[in-house]
Design a protein that fits this description.
heterodimer, A: 506 residues, mainly alpha, MetI-like fold, 0% strand, globular, B: alpha+beta, 3 domains, four-stranded antiparallel sheet, two-stranded antiparallel ribbon, 12 helices, 7% strand
């Protein structure tokens, strides 16, 4: 033991300080490790710096340093008047700003556009912040109530009836079409080779039509009676509200559990009544602004928001149809999705503009904007269907099996268990689709709608502002707007993705 | 005594029910009937309305109009075309123009996309930032915006032909388009092309032979000197014997315009630049994701086997990355082809522009023309997805083996 102790060594003086390790953090460290650590890297850094120098410096010079900030017409932006190489001609944007945002929307009515945009912002922002409560109410307001309100705000006009009248009218149209088809078959049976068969089918169809006519007779009678009274909208509204509340109460479980459904439907109807009263819809509403006067950013936002709101239900329905085991529905969904995904959007818009009017009854004209909206909704719906399908595939089978073990029906399994999880999974993909939809709205300018890009292009031809830098200025302005929207959405999708993958991080 | 396993009951009725109605059984059959009835009703409405509307507008349905004279000119044609040709020929001309702009766009988009992806993956901080800025800016601006930007702002701001920008004295860029030298075939062209084809075929055969030797007998054969000799030496030798295969006719400024050379119309230039830079941003992201998807351990395993860095990349990393890259890359190629239909906005005579645009407004045959246009695009995309599913099947088979 003593041997060990005697050989022990205790250091009595401190070691000299070693030099600090080479700094690898901060700007200096970055330069050392990632920019100038080898001859090749130095060369690449110089190359990158040159690239930036030749793009950033001229852009800043064009947008800020050499720009003209005030003036009355093109003469301010000409080289001979300014005395130097002129950059951006901002007075041109100032002069054209109303056109770029509202199009030809009447100046006195522009508060309606502003109000709609404000409403959209107020409803959308809380929906995007995950921490805020009442998501389902918020989503319902944004996806169901807001589009209706926005339509009456932007387009104007009022209503002549309510749910009952609309249902009656729709059923009547349907019935007339069935009767028409039956009559056509009967008249065809006089000349055709398979006359007896056609006659039988035609008589059956006519019989069906007549039966439906009798069935809906009380409804149509009630509608005509209501239209005869002094207050058709309110009478119709009261009857519709009573019927819908009753149905909700019964479906919600009657006296036992139906109170909640009853309360929520009554609340919805009261809110609807307030909106009708506020906007004076029963007396013709606001003055009508035809959609050919709309333009600029307004059309861009209307088209993209409508596309977003309508494409999601279409996409969900198609995705469920594609996963269904019922042969016809699956085949139809696959064909529908693959068709719209296989053709370019511009041909879809041509289809909606030139072909769709031919498919509708001759006395039935559809507004140009609505036609484009239908085309975009179908097109985007097919893309959303593939996104939703990805989410549905990501849900383990055990979820729906557990739901089936609890005795839930297919509808309840899908709407309460599978879809909420699936949709949450694919929020980033959905947002990415919305980005491409927002970018694709610029295509409506090809079918004679003046969205932001269309208005910009139209403003180039104004001789009052034609200077060499006008086009560049206009593109810079529109580019900044598009970039802000798209970049904002893509950052949001990254944020959601990060949040959804929180459990995978360590 | 052993008991034979009992055969499962045939359950024919159950199988039929499953086949007809899926999991929902007879309910499913009922749903299908209702669905078919609705589809039939919609179809009937469409047909009857279309017939009535066409009668009101005095338009004869059918494809007979394709044999009528078109009567308008197209400013870029790959096959001979005059105004007195038929609408069918207009269709072919437009389709060829679509294909040529797509192919050129795809080539440039791939090159730019790979360069940008390499920039983004580069260890150099500044260069990867430059790549990132490019991708973010390009991806967040609409394609139509970019096409119009190149066409209305950049190309329109170029000088007129007299002051055109000379690119090394052989090509000239002006607001009338790009003028490039045009090749003119000489007597040596035939033998040259034949020898080139022979060289390509021989090189492929050599590669096949070398791979077989490597995989079956473990012999490495160095083939690149022979391939170089076949691909370069053989055509050069024929050139010495038979003379030059073609000469270039250089464009020259005469008066207010260029004589000689061939002119590429500005619409083509704008469309190609916009399409290839736009798609390149997406391709860059795909390539980057593909290369990042190969685990770091693969590179380390390769170097621990004694392979050089280049060999590891070539034999281990790239083949695995390609599996991830190829399907979305094909998708982008398809997107580029579909996006080339935006040509209608600047008047490049592609399929949509000359056929669904000009021909439609001249004849009014909306249903036939739009159906044909959509059908062509649908055919292209279905063919591509068929090829891709074969590729996917092969990849999954080689992974399973």
């Amino acid at each position: 033991m003593s041997d060990v102790i005697s050989s022990s060594f205790v250091r009595r003086d401190l070691l000299a300080e070693r030099p600090a390790p080479v700094k690898t953090t901060g700007f200096i460290g970055l330069m050392r490790t990632r920019l100038f650590n080898s001859p090749t890297n130095i060369l690449l850094t110089i190359l990158g710096a040159l690239l930036l120098w030749f793009t950033i410096v001229p852009s800043v010079k064009f947008l800020m340093v050499d720009a003209i900030w005030s003036g009355r017409d093109r003469s301010a932006c000409l080289v001979e008047n300014a005395g130097f190489a002129v950059g951006a001609c901002w007075p041109y944007i100032q002069a054209k700003l109303p056109q770029l945002i509202y199009g030809f929307y009447p100046e006195a009515e522009r508060w309606r556009v502003n109000l709609t945009l404000l409403l959209a912002a107020v409803l959308l922002l809380p929906l995007l912040v995950p921490r805020l409560p009442a998501k389902s109410l918020n989503a319902g307001l944004f996806f169901a109530a807001f589009p209706v309100v926005a339509f009456f705000l932007l387009h104007g006009g009022g209503i002549k009836g309510f749910g009952l009248s609309w249902t009656a009218g729709l059923l009547q149209l349907f019935d007339e079409s069935i009767l028409g088809a039956g009559q056509a078959l009967l008249s065809l049976s006089k000349t055709s080779a398979i006359a007896p068969l056609l006659w039988v089918v035609g008589s059956l169809v006519v019989l069906l039509g007549t039966a439906i006519q009798w069935l809906i007779f009380p409804l149509t009678w009630l509608r005509d009676y209501i239209q005869g009274t002094g207050q058709p909208v309110w009478a119709d509204f009261a009857i519709t509200a009573a019927i819908v509340c009753l149905i909700a109460f019964v479906l919600g479980g009657g006296v036992r559990t139906g109170g909640r459904a009853l309360a929520s439907s009554i609340g919805t109807f009261i809110a609807t009544a307030i909106v009708i009263k506020l906007m004076d819809l029963d007396h013709g509403g606001l003055s009508i602004v035809a959609t050919n006067l709309w333009g600029g950013l307004l059309v861009t936002l209307v088209v993209s928001v409508t596309g977003i709101v309508t494409s999601l239900p279409i996409g969900i329905a198609l995705a469920l149809g594609r996963r269904s085991t019922i042969p016809l529905i699956r085949i139809f969904s696959i064909a529908f999705i693959e068709f719209w995904r296989g053709v370019p959007l511009i041909t879809v818009l041509f289809f909606a503009t030139y072909m769709l009017p031919l498919f509708l009854p001759g006395n039935f004209t559809v507004d140009g904007l609505v036609r484009a909206l239908i085309g975009i909704a179908l097109f985007t719906g097919a893309y959303q269907a593939e996104n939703v399908r990805g989410g549905l595939a990501a849900i383990p089978r055990g979820q729906s099996e557990a739901a089936a073990a609890l005795g839930l029906s297919w509808w309840k399994t899908t709407s309460l268990i599978v879809l909420p999880q699936a949709l949450r999974h694919v929020i980033p993909n959905l947002v990415n689709s919305f980005i491409s939809l927002f970018k694709d709205t610029s295509l409506v300018s090809i079918v004679a709608l003046f969205d932001l890009l269309g208005s910009l292009r139209a403003s180039f031809s104004d001789p009052k502002w034609s200077t060499p830098s006008t086009a560049f200025t206009g593109f810079a302005f529109a580019g900044i707007i598009y970039f802000m929207f798209c970049f904002g959405m893509s950052r949001y999708s990254l944020f959601v993705e990060h949040r959804l993958n929180a459990h995978r991080r360590n | 005594m052993s008991t034979e396993a009992r055969k499962p009951p045939p359950q024919i009725a159950l199988k039929i029910r499953r086949m007809l109605g899926g999991k929902a059984g007879w309910n499913g059959v009922a749903v299908q009937f209702a669905f078919a009835a609705i589809l039939g009703w919609i179809g009937y409405e469409i047909v009857s309305n279309a017939r009535a509307n066409l009668e009101n507008q005095h338009i004869a349905a059918g494809f007979g109009f394709l044999r009528n004279n078109a009567g308008f000119d197209v400013n870029q044609t790959l096959i001979p075309y005059t105004g007195s040709d038929t609408f069918l020929r207009v269709f072919v001309v437009g389709l060829l123009n679509t294909l040529v702009v797509s192919v050129v766009g795809i080539v440039f988009a791939t090159v730019i996309g790979f360069i940008v992806a390499l920039c983004r993956l580069s260890p150099n901080w500044l260069l990867s930032r430059v790549g990132e800025i490019y991708v973010e800016v390009i991806r967040n601006l609409p394609l139509l915006f970019q096409i119009l930007f190149w066409y209305l702002a950049v190309l329109a701001a170029l000088p007129n032909p007299r002051q055109s920008i000379s690119l090394l004295g052989i090509a000239f860029l002006s607001n009338r388009g790009l003028v490039v030298p045009s090749p003119i075939g000489q007597s040596g062209l035939g033998p040259f092309l034949a020898m080139l084809a022979l060289g390509v075929v021989a090189s492929l055969a050599l590669r096949f032979h070398a791979r077989r030797a490597l995989f079956q007998e473990g012999r490495m054969i160095r083939i690149w000197p022979y391939v170089v000799a076949l691909l370069l030496g053989l055509p050069l030798a024929t050139m010495l014997v038979f003379g030059l295969p073609f000469t270039f006719e250089l464009p020259q400024l005469r008066g207010f315009n260029f004589a000689g050379g061939s002119r590429i119309i500005p619409e083509f230039v704008a469309l190609t630049v916009a399409l290839s830079t736009y798609t390149a941003a997406f391709i860059a992201e795909i390539v980057r994701a593909g290369i990042l998807s190969v685990h770091k351990g693969q590179m380390e395993a390769g170097s621990s086997l004694g392979l050089s860095r280049g060999a590891t990349l070539r034999l281990i990393v790239v083949p695995q990355a390609m599996r991830v890259i190829v399907p979305p890359l094909t998708n982008q190629y398809l997107n580029l082809t579909k996006n080339s239909s935006l040509a209608v906005a600047i008047g490049y005579p592609d399929l949509v522009s000359v056929f669904a645009g000009t021909s439609l407004s001249q004849t009014g045959q909306a249903i036939e023309i739009i159906a044909m246009t959509m059908g062509i695009y649908l055919l292209i995309s279905l063919l591509t997805s068929a090829v891709m599913s074969v590729y996917g099947w092969r990849v999954s088979r080689s992974l399973g083996a």
